[in-house]
Amino acid sequence: MAFPTETVYGLGADAENESAVRRIFRVKGRPSTHPLIVHVQDPWPWAQDPPPWARRLAERFWPGPMTLVVRRNRRASDAVTGGQETVGLRVPSHPLALSLLRAFGGGIAAPSANRFGKVSPTTAAHVRSDLGSEVDFILDGGPSTVGVESTIIDCSGPEPSILRPGGVTREAIQEALGRPVEVIGTGEIRVPGQLESHYAPRAEVVPVSPGELEGRAAELRTRGLNVEVLREPEARTLYASLREADARGADAVVVVLPALEGLGLAVADRLRKAAAPRG
Ligand code: TXA
Ligand code: MG
Question: What's the whole-model pTM score?
């Protein structure tokens, strides 16, 4: 079933039921080597020897928009981890997600509830329009309040690093740990050096600096394109804005990249991936 989280809506299945997990990959059209995040109430039975600083992050930011990648134990199957020896764990803070986890009792494997490579859903209506009758149930918890996915932190090596910027800011993580934490790119890019389009609407996404906005938009319009502009993209409304541009038939969305701080880091990351060459 699809369910709301504070970041985006997830498409969930019993993480310990391999055929249910395989159905998630089928419905999303996602390669089976891309691991899923396991949503839990109680994370540590899924991990093996997490470092003390991972526990510190957990205490500080869970429940919330953070995923920790830790060494897995046997509960996390190959179907969920894509055969890797690590598992991504998250305790979401949305009250409906927490009730669902409490009622179910186990771990819920869930990617964002959209087709692979497309814009993530932040409302129940987005899920219905993307996945239609292929999803059995959708729990409607209203619009997601964070609006971009969780921050993924690799806790499987000697040092923490950020694999995907998201709802918990790099600044907050550094403050909790009392040291600098590197952003080493992303879980989405499987082939080194090859930036594949992801989080992408149908319209072309054209990231610009504030000074380039008017010129670039005018240039695209002279080519006869239906152009929309997004001056101050914000995490909470980013995906809904891109979907609305598609619904209005936009050919291109010219969007100002925010400063790389706070939630701006995650917004800029998603816009760059949306602008990457289409596969
Ligand atoms: O906010 C979120 O994280 C949302 C909500 C539903 O929780 N979920 C989400 O899932 O964004 P998904 O599947 O769309 O993105 C999960 C990312 C993928 O890029 C995947 O490669 C990475 O997490 N990931 C999961 N497990 C991993 C692991 N063991 N090692 C490295 N990356 C991992
Ligand atoms: Mg996703």
Answer: 0.96
